[in-house]
């Protein structure tokens, strides 16, 4: 992964802090997405084509606007309008839009821009216009290597999203997941990574051994996951930039269910010994191991609160799977789920205000959220089988996987990645080349 | 006339029970509450020595039938003093992945513990949990799930 060298220039912006009329209400559902026009970016004369792998990209301005449109449509908060209805040429619109014409097609916001591609550089400039108030509300320019053009599109999407919703975006991010192929009784599983929109898929392992539950570090390009390398199920650490892998700690038995601490310095996980699973942490620099829970029942699926002070986890100490919260030193354990059914896979929102979980009740699987004290339970989606929610870095969207029913030959079986908005609206399939499971969302790549 | 009616009823009862038996065998296997009691998926380590035992949902306790199978495994291992085994613990697909890994480990260890109480050294028994990753029956039915909630004792070469 070549690191993105990004230079952001703030263009001169008129009244950038002034009140603007366009605003997206994100507290309600997404019943009325905001109409937005993404004008194709004007490609300046003398620009080169971009050669990427086998593909040649002739009009990168057009391609960037398409990536932005897909991001916005998938967010559920915006309604990108059809380009056929656009009334102004991209170059002129970028200099001075005729707002009264754009108002005719009922758009409330307009994105314009221009691109210049040289041999080793792409320079992109964009502006966001409030069509109703008839003024510019955001203007930025970026320079990077031409191959990074998709990331430029994602960064523009994030900037616009942030300007219009008041929240950080989640488009310049990646998802690590487990790619699945083969028979249900003998699945081949590989670690795979892709951009949040499904582009740029890369496989990180060969499929020779079973791999499960990869999770991103919130701080850097490290991933922790579980592998059955040499048939010894253990937690591993993988640097996705260098490809270097190492086993985490020296445990005489299965380690599993790993996650990073919010500062990225520790791994928290389960260690199973003599039929009992407890929660441990290991500091990645000092290698210091700490036992956090001590109970004769199963304790697993730990996840830190974003301030690092608390841990939510899954335990069957009450007899059945329930969710508990404790201080990060293991003290003050409290059960928080008392509803009907079983609860698993708790994962703390990056905002800190919610815990997402999987609930099993009457043969159905639900993805839901609740406050860290267990109140305010809301079930977002119900299905035959689904689990393992992971938060977008802004705490707005959950990604999870879903499996379908099959007959005794395995016919009908599939495992797919899905996302859903925190509101319970905007449920979407995330298309992947192969079946997929155990998705984990990265932090924003550029902040 | 009366005789005829009685005969008819008897016949219906007989036919009905025939249908039931047919059903049970056709569906290949049986369950008691939700524990698999059939032998469709079972393989043998030696004559009369079954390689696997079955568990109830979310449980790792050994049933009477499971203990019976395991005593035979222990007797076989006592005779074959050079044999080592791996006990694989498995779960059905109706639980979350991480919990199932823990559950499979718990099941494998309750088998290991039982074999040890019948005189087999712990050094000869390793355990590994596959959670829900390696089902033996791909079906999404209660019967398939009962066949997948299992531990399998595998001879190590």
Can you give a write-up of this model?
The complex is a heterodimer of chains A (447) and B (157). In chain A, a hairpin with a 6-residue loop joins strand 14 and strand 15. Chain A starts with 6 loop residues before the first strand and ends in a 6-residue tail after the last strand. Chain A folds into two domains: 7-165, Rossmann fold, CATH 3.40.50.10070; 174-247 and 313-441, 6 Propeller (Neuraminidase). Chain A is mainly beta. Chain A has helices at 60-75, 90-95, 99-104, 149-165; strands spanning 7-10, 34-38, 42-43, 50-52, 55-57, 78-80, 109-117, 122-130, 135-144, 174-181, 188-195, 202-203, 211-216, 222-227, 234-239, 245-247, 255-260, 266-273, 276-283, 289-291, 299-304, 310-315, 322-327, 334-335, 342-348, 355-361, 364-370, 378-383, 386-391, 397-403, 415-421, 428-430, 435-441. Chain B is globular, with a radius of gyration of 20 Å. The N and C termini of chain B lie far apart (72 Å). Chain B contains four helices and eight strands. The longest helix of chain B has 25 residues, at 2-26. The interface between A and B is large, with 46 and 31 residues.
Furnish the topology, listing elements before pairings.
The complex is a heterodimer of chains A (447) and B (157).
Chain A: E1 7-10, E2 34-38, E3 42-43, E4 50-52, E5 55-57, H1 60-75, E6 78-80, H2 90-95, H3 99-104, E7 109-117, E8 122-130, E9 135-144, H4 149-165, E10 174-181, E11 188-195, E12 202-203, E13 211-216, E14 222-227, E15 234-239, E16 245-247, E17 255-260, E18 266-273, E19 276-283, E20 289-291, E21 299-304, E22 310-315, E23 322-327, E24 334-335, E25 342-348, E26 355-361, E27 364-370, E28 378-383, E29 386-391, E30 397-403, E31 415-421, E32 428-430, E33 435-441
Parallel strand pairs in A: 2-6, 2-7, 3-7
Antiparallel strand pairs in A: 1-9, 4-5, 7-8, 8-9, 10-11, 10-33, 11-12, 13-14, 14-15, 15-16, 17-18, 18-19, 19-20, 21-22, 22-23, 23-24, 25-26, 26-27, 27-28, 29-30, 30-31, 31-32
Helix pairs in contact in A: 1-4
Chain B: H1 2-26, E1 31-32, E2 35-36, E3 44-46, E4 49-50, E5 52-54, H2 64-79, E6 84-90, H3 97-117, E7 125-131, H4 142-148, E8 150-156
Parallel strand pairs in B: 6-7
Antiparallel strand pairs in B: 1-2, 3-4, 5-8, 6-8
Helix pairs in contact in B: 2-3
